[in-house]
Amino acid sequence: MKQDQTVRAGTAEPSDPPAAERAEQAAGTNEAAPLVAGADVNPSRIDQTAAEGGETPAQGAEQREGDGVSEKARQTVTPEKQADSSKQADAPKGGDESGSAAEGATAGAAAKNEAGVKAADSADADKEAKRKAAAEARAARAAAKAKADGDGGESAQPKPPSPNQPLLDRLVDILKREVGEDAVESAWINPIGDIPTVSLRAERLVDCARVLRDHPELQLNYLRNVAGVDMETHMEVVYHLISLNNKINYSIKVKTDREHPSVPSVSEVWSTANWNEREIYDLLGIDFPGHPDLRRILMPDDWVGYPLRKDYVPADPEV
Amino acid sequence: MAIRTEELLLNVGPQHPSTHGVLRVVVKLDGEVITEATPVIGYLHRGTEKLAENLNYTQIIPYTDRMDYVSAMTNNYVLCHTVEKMMGIEVPERAEFLRLIVMELQRIASHQVWWGTYLLDIGSLSPFLYAFRDREIIINLFNELCGARLTYNYMRVGGVKWDAPEGWIDKVKDFVKYMKGRLEVYDRLVTGNEIFLARVKGVGKYDAQTAIDYGLSGANLRCTGVAWDLRKTQPYSLYDRFEFDVATAEEGDCWARYKVRLEEIRQSLRILEQALEQFPPEGEIMGKVPRVVRPPEGEYYAAIESPRGEIGCYIVSKGKAEPYRLKFRRPSFVNLQVLPKLLVGETMTNLVTILGSIDIVLGEVDC
Hints:
The structure holds two protein chains of two kinds. Chain A is 48% helix and 12% strand. Chain A is α+β, with helices and mostly antiparallel strands. Chain A has a five-stranded mixed β-sheet. Chain A is flat and about 60 Å long. Helices cover 48% and strands 13% of the residues of chain B. Chain B is globular and about 80 Å long.
């Protein structure tokens, strides 16, 4: 279908060479757009956007009501119409902002006569409207989530109390009783999937881990996954646990300082943590005191730096 | 006078055919007996998790194909499934049926590869040819569906990329019938073979406690009698609609793992029969998905049952089009960890038997 349009755009109105050329150019942009999403945008096209079509989004906003006018313009100038339709075909393919930058560039290319501007702008107006709607939906979701998060602590209940809230309360209760009042830093229900989550103090982690595994009510004998995350202000290690006996999921978090990240190893409690911790050490540089064999596991032994850190810069630019 | 003996240090791999890729095992040998074994991995590390931080979710899907390249469909699924859960996207029924059908076909294909290469490892050439000939049918079905033989890039957040072509479902039905007969051939060819049994019975044995402690999953866990299959215990997709049994065995040795995997092919065929019968004749293949996939701020871990075990995906999102942190729980990586424990005290020939029975894919180990 895309090819059809390209051909049509190229051959339409041979009596108006510049217009046909523009259409071709626009279709070319469409063709050049990567299949999955617009990751690679030709830098010259971006420049064009800045030079010629830089004001398009604003114009697009103005033009949102004036769709009828531009519709007329589109009907009268065929090549632009073609270019426009090929651009619209492009629209669902563009994956993100860089995709829309490519579209902006197309608009810039077409912006040489007024009709072209209008035709392009109406397409922009459509997109702008969609984008705005999406932004509103996002804002609404974020607000809802913030609301849920805001009172997600130990004391207050989230608006509709999660069915897993009793599990969380019980977990906190057990940990505080068996390990100590200071073991649990905070506890909440992860809103996606209703997973009871507790944040533990690093010093008490191993004690807590033993309780989690051995307590008859919890029996969290299976460590599914260990993940390290660089949160830029601090580092986090997340443990996803499940009991094979009662099939209940929990996740445990430990926060650690970013300068000297260190979390006690739980490989004594769950053997599977051994390689997982080595992987986190390798990629994020978190130290695991108590680990029997903390070496790099995926990267070469002489690698410099920790690749998954957000501020990672390769030591050797050639690599 | 006592004979002076010396410990021998031997590198197996990284280019040894029995390691199924680029795995190196450094073994210390006392005569023919292994005293210590250390797997060395990372030869195929491509930094998928790092790359993913600069890609949007649709762009990450092809990377998942290349993790466990013997079972790309389940890898596609785990990523899409996690994002869908985070965003609350409904997948149309037809799309979900297509996903389930390709995942079960993939499980069969993956176990066929395992079956063929495992027997090749321990010295039997013909089963490999049988397995690959039958697997070719599945590969061709996939090729017809999405134009690729191995790295399918078939699923999308919210559905699938391609609808089933006309007559495709009937072809899958034919395959299911055909494969049922083939399983009997497989059994006649190998399962009762005395030499084979002597090689696998009682070798590489561990108990349920060890399996759970090491976080083993898939056939490696179920061979110890633990009936843990995420399709059954934490149903995702449409698995709760179909009747099937979790394949288990009690012995915990290579023989048990062999039995479990063959039984899983049988159960997959059972699921396929029902799914193909109930396949909706028409419907959408993509759900309502925003143009740019942006999971809300938050985090989520989802896991599914791949042919090798629990494959999981942990996403930390900051509400952007790219994940802030994406971590894959790769079953091969976790399962491989138990190898040194199993090898100590075994003979050198059993190294191949045991390693093969764990069923690793190095693309997934190294990620």
